[in-house]
């Protein structure tokens, strides 16, 4: 990539980030919420997708959108996308029980599966709205300018987390009851760790769909568990919640492991996405 194209791409990244953030904060001014959707909530929810589409139309560039599922070639990665966060969630809950900071009781498989399966279509739609922006546009553009993978994950996390802020208190599958001033910095850290994993899946597969699937399953699996079966000792949310330190550690370590595997396979000496 020559300097002129690289500079243009940097501007595209800046414009996309500004546009998606502006749309997100305009949303609450126009009404609506997760519990009572309205125009503003729709604008907020679709902002990453809308911003990505507008940028691609304006630049006439769809080459790196990753729209092909390539299921046969990426079958193992689709399986990992489905299983990774449920496995990390279960491990987090088990550790929480062992160290007595949370309890997980009264679990019933049939009611859980009903809630999980009914939530999947809703969270799938939201995952498409988000991932077509984050992993469908922002990640490949950061990759194209040769940015270090971890720095790219920081940039994605900042935009991704900031987009959540207008409705953060009302997103019950994201935010717990703890002090929001304590929660938000950890939330940014969590999306950095999660982003390393999501970004690696996106780059390894060359498709946005495994990230969509991972995002969908993460929310649909974790939300009913937390809402219906998990009790956290007050003050311990930072350890065992969906964005607690255990989940941050597990996701970050898995993402780093995939990054290192990909680098070795490609014979590269530095981590580029």
Explain the overall architecture.
This protein is mainly alpha-helical. It has one domain. The chain has helices at 3-26, 39-59, 75-98, 109-144, 149-164, 180-205, 209-228, 237-240, 245-266, and strands spanning 102-104, 230-232. It has a two-stranded antiparallel ribbon. The longest helix has 36 residues, at 109-144. The radius of gyration is 18 Å and the shape is globular. 41% of the residues are buried.
Throw out a few tags for this protein.
disordered C terminus; mainly alpha; 273 residues
Number of domains: 1
Helix content: over 70%
Characterize the biggest β-sheet: 2 strands, antiparallel
Helix/strand class: mainly alpha
Beta-strand percentage range = under 5%
Query: How many distinct helices?
Result: 9
Distance from N terminus to C terminus (CA atoms, Å) equals: 15 Å
Ranges with pLDDT <50 over ≥5 residues?
Answer: 269-273
Number of strands: 2
Strand order of the largest sheet: 1-2
Q: What is the helix/strand order? A: HHHEHHHHEHH
CA gyration radius, whole angstroms: 18 Å
Shape: globular
**Mean pLDDT over all positions:** 92
How do the helices and strands line up, and which of them pair or pack?
Layout: H1 3-26, H2 39-59, H3 75-98, E1 102-104, H4 109-144, H5 149-164, H6 180-205, H7 209-228, E2 230-232, H8 237-240, H9 245-266
Antiparallel strand pairs: 1-2
Helix pairs in contact: 1-2, 1-4, 1-5, 2-4, 3-7, 3-9, 4-5, 4-6, 4-7, 5-6, 6-7, 6-9
């Amino acid at each position: 990539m020559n300097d002129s194209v690289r500079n243009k791409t940097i501007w595209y990244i800046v414009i996309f980030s500004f546009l998606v953030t502006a749309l997100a904060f305009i949303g609450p001014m126009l009404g609506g919420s997760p519990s009572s959707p309205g125009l503003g909530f729709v604008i907020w929810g679709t902002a990453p997708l809308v911003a990505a589409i507008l940028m691609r139309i304006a630049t006439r560039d769809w080459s790196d959108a990753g729209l092909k599922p390539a299921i046969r070639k990426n079958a193992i990665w689709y399986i990992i996308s489905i299983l990774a966060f449920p496995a990390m969630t279960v491990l987090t809950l088990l550790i929480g029980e062992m160290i007595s900071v949370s309890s997980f009781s009264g679990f019933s498989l049939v009611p859980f599966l009903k809630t999980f399966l009914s939530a999947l279509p809703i969270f799938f739609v939201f995952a498409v709205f988000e991932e077509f922006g984050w992993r469908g546009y922002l990640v490949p553009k950061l990759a194209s300018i040769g940015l270090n993978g971890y720095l790219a994950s920081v940039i994605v996390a900042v935009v991704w987390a900031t987009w959540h802020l207008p409705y953060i208190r009302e997103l019950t599958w994201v935010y717990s009851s703890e002090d929001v001033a304590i929660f938000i910095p950890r939330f940014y850290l969590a999306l950095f760790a999660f982003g390393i994993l999501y970004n690696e899946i996106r780059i390894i597969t060359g498709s946005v769909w495994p990230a969509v699937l991972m995002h969908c399953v993460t929310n649909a699996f974790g939300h009913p568990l937390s809402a219906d079966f998990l009790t956290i000792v007050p003050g311990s949310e930072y350890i065992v919640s969906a964005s607690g330190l255990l989940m941050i550690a597990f996701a970050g370590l898995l993402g780093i492991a995939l990054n290192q595997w990909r680098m070795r396979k490609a014979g590269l000496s530095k981590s580029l996405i």
